[in-house]
């Protein structure tokens, strides 16, 4: 697919492009980042700002986006990254940011995966990313996927890649717009560039199992976020630290998973139920799942929950990359638990019955 083109001269840009100048404003921001004692509008900052702008010897670059025929005059990569992560400090220290940036991450599945990708890129995360999904954008996806009406009918991976590059034109994206399957999944994970962390947002249970077998053997951690109504279910499997750890937290026997392709639908359903864990389903999700095929056509998902999943996975990637203590296990982030005054009360339990 088309990638952004980076030019050193305006004259090299294809004719007829729409020009956007972010260079001067970028330099002004750089002045204030480098002089934190001065704020915009302060009289004492006007003279040093003018001097900085006049003495500036930073070169400009031009970033051309072929899909929308726009060209942006911008500061070079090192300054752009410094500006884009300036407000991360010191929630993320400079050393932590560099390590986070150097992590190589693969995301398979770009429904909730698109929110994860967005959170990673927005926070100045991995420069090298592998992304995969074969599916196309539909109107029903627009309640949760970072896409627009004008994207309907386009491949999810292509739409996601363009969104990334419009925020981080220097990202090294490996775009698998035909998705992953049992023949190429190992190459997605282990092929050049080999990823450090695998994020599983696939629908296929057999591919989920296969990915874990591959990652377990290669000692690659697996992260998965499931949007679960107003809750996010997080699964962390630190195969990098626990190479003998049972996949899916040991909720099913690995021998059963090796034969997924041979089992019938009823056996498959029982297997899925054991992995997902019905005890993790909120009441409204449980009722919704029972209504699929009757009054609902598919599993319900919410955009705000997908965004919450994205934030959680981005946090985990950053912490794992920086070798902090992120332990294997299953975790629940529940808005209802934290915000509802009736959560856990008799009134709440009566409502669930």
Name a few traits of the molecule.
four-stranded mixed β-sheet; 16% strand; 353 residues; Rossmann fold; disordered C terminus; alpha/beta; 2 domains; elongated; seven-stranded mixed β-sheet
Explain the layout of strands and helices.
Layout: E1 5-7, E2 18-21, H1 23-34, H2 43-55, E3 61-65, E4 70-74, H3 77-84, H4 94-102, E5 104-108, H5 112-122, E6 128-132, H6 156-167, E7 172-176, H7 185-190, E8 197-200, H8 205-218, E9 222-228, E10 231-237, H9 254-258, H10 265-276, H11 283-290, H12 303-321, E11 329-334, H13 335-339, H14 346-352
Parallel strand pairs: 2-4, 5-6, 5-8, 6-7, 8-9
Antiparallel strand pairs: 1-3, 3-4, 9-10, 10-11
Helix pairs in contact: 1-3, 4-12, 5-6, 5-12
Question: Can you describe this structure?
Answer:
The chain has two domains: 5-84, no CATH class; 94-339, 3-Layer(aba) Sandwich (Rossmann fold), CATH 3.40.50.720. The protein has 14 helices and eleven strands. It has helices at residues 23-34, 43-55, 77-84, 94-102, 112-122, 156-167, 185-190, 205-218, 254-258, 265-276, 283-290, 303-321, 335-339, 346-352, and strands at residues 5-7, 18-21, 61-65, 70-74, 104-108, 128-132, 172-176, 197-200, 222-228, 231-237, 329-334. The strands form two sheets. It has a seven-stranded mixed β-sheet, with helices on both faces. The longest helix is centred in the C-terminal third of the chain and has 19 residues, at 303-321. 29% of the residues are buried. Residues 349-353 have low confidence and may be disordered.
């Amino acid at each position: 697919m088309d990638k952004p083109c980076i030019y050193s001269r305006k004259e090299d840009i294809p004719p007829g492009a729409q020009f956007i100048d972010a260079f001067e404003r970028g330099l002004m921001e750089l002045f204030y980042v480098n002089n934190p004692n001065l704020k915009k509008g302060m009289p004492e900052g006007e003279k040093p700002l003018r001097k900085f702008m006049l003495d500036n010897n930073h070169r400009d670059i031009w970033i051309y986006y072929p899909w929308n025929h726009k060209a942006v005059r911008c500061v070079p990569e090192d300054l752009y990254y410094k500006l884009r992560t300036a407000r991360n400090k010191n929630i993320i220290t400079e050393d932590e940011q560099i390590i986070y940036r150097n992590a190589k991450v693969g995301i398979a599945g770009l429904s909730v995966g698109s929110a994860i990708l967005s959170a990673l890129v927005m926070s100045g995360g991995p420069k090298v990313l592998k992304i995969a999904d074969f599916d196309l954008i539909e109107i029903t996806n627009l309640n949760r996927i970072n896409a627009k009406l004008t994207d309907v009918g386009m491949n999810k991976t292509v739409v996601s890649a363009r969104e990334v590059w419009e925020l981080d034109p220097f990202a090294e994206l490996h775009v698998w717009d035909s998705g992953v399957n049992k023949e190429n999944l190992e190459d997605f994970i282990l092929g050049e560039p080999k990823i450090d962390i695998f994020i599983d947002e696939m629908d296929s249970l057999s591919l989920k199992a296969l990915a874990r077998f591959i990652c377990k053997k290669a000692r690659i951690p697996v992260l998965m976020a499931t949007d679960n109504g107003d809750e996010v279910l997080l699964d962390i499997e630190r195969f990098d630290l626990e190479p003998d750890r049972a996949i899916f937290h040991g909720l099913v026997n690995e021998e059963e998973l090796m034969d997924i392709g041979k089992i019938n639908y009823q056996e498959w359903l029982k297997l899925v139920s054991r992995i997902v864990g019905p005890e993790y389903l909120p009441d409204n999700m449980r009722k919704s799942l029972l209504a699929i095929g009757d009054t609902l056509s598919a599993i319900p998902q919410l955009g705000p929950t997908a965004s919450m999943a994205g934030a959680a996975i981005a946090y985990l990637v950053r912490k794992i990359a920086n070798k902090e203590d992120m332990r294997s296990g299953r975790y629940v982030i529940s808005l209802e638990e934290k915000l509802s005054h009736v959560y856990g009360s008799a009134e709440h339990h009566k409502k669930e019955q």
